[in-house]
TrEMBL record:
Keywords: Signal. Residues 24-45 are annotated as: Disordered. The keyword Signal applies. Residues 24-36 have a biased composition (Low complexity). It comes from the Bacteria. Pfam families: Peripla_BP_6. The lineage of its organism: Bacteria, Bacillati, Actinomycetota, Actinomycetes, Micrococcales. This is ABC transporter substrate-binding protein. InterPro entries: BCAA_transport (IPR051010), Leu-bd (IPR028081), Peripla_BP_I (IPR028082). Gene3D superfamilies: 3.40.50.2300. Residues 1-23 form the signal peptide.
Amino acid sequence: MKSQRMLALVGVAALAVSLSACAADDSPSSTSSATSGGEIVFGLDEDSTGPGASYATIAGKTIRMAVNEINAAGGIGGKKIRIVVGNDESDPTKTPTVVRKLVDDGAQVLLLDTGSGAVLQGKSVVKQAAIPAIAPTAVTTSVALAPDNEFTYMLANGVDQFAKAYCGAMQKEGHKSIAVLSDASPAINNINKLIIPILQGCVKVLAQETAPVDVADLTAQVARIKESGPDAVLVSSLGGNFEVLAQNTLFQQMPGVRRFSLASIGNQPDSWSRVDKGALADVVYMGALDKGNPKTAELTKKLKKLNGNDYRLTAYDAQAYDSVYLMKQAIEAAGGADNPTAVRDQLNKISGYKASFGQAGFTLSFSADKHGGADGLCGLVLSGFDKNNQPTGAWPEYQVPCKTN
């Protein structure tokens, strides 16, 4: 009996060790161990519960798909990728701690899949750690600019360029004035500081209304916007429930008025069915996807095979996928991930990478002086919806010219 009890205890201990090892492959960083010599560790700061979760989880899922794809093909230089995960909830006050924890857990490169405002607060820690980091979904231009940008990169066109596209669209339709309805998240606050001054150069901003991300009623804010009498309305939000509520309320109180939106609503398919039928027909958003881009078509095929034929590709998917493969390219060129500075130097040499988003032919390039990957404005694709709240693709009325900014 004594020997049987000993065997049982040994079996339980072995099972516990086995389960712990499996969990470390993709678990919160607090449970992960430091890297061993036989793997490459990607640190993923993923907002899975905060205001950016509506898009960060989309990107996070595709990051994992890309890593699995690379591992199935033999990894990078024969080494498999392991992901350690943290969650800063898009809260800039939490980002430095989360990034430090990822580094302590062995991360050799970082993917900052969180709000732009949070990424900005993480840059100094990234610089101190001297580990290359890509922010897949960041759209605040200052993410890629000094100070503290030596190891931090972004892919998408910045919101200052969004503003140029919106100005072109508004002028095309003859709008002279707009109002802005925003959530109160730090990321959107930073975006508005960039985008609104540019918009004021082409239209008059009559009203700016703000509400908490978890607001339950926007009737009062929209009533004030309506009273100001704008030709159009810009919804500036992280998406999710706030944008659904904003679009429904604007549709009910201001039917027929043109609405412009940041990328959020067009890149969050789960939101479309929660918006009143026909409420998105007057919305133009920054979709960043063009059916004529062969790289977009290729990624769409992969994601449909994995997630089912009803899966709708988003810009978040494309930017996440490209981020992983850009890191792979730099690590391969550096001869591995053991020297993060060498990986950073190889990122700075990437040129003409064909992106999975943007107009056909859109490319990404980095250099020591260019940490924003977008080569010109071709990463921007204004897009629309039909009366069934389904995306119709590139908006036929206006597209930003494909040229350098």
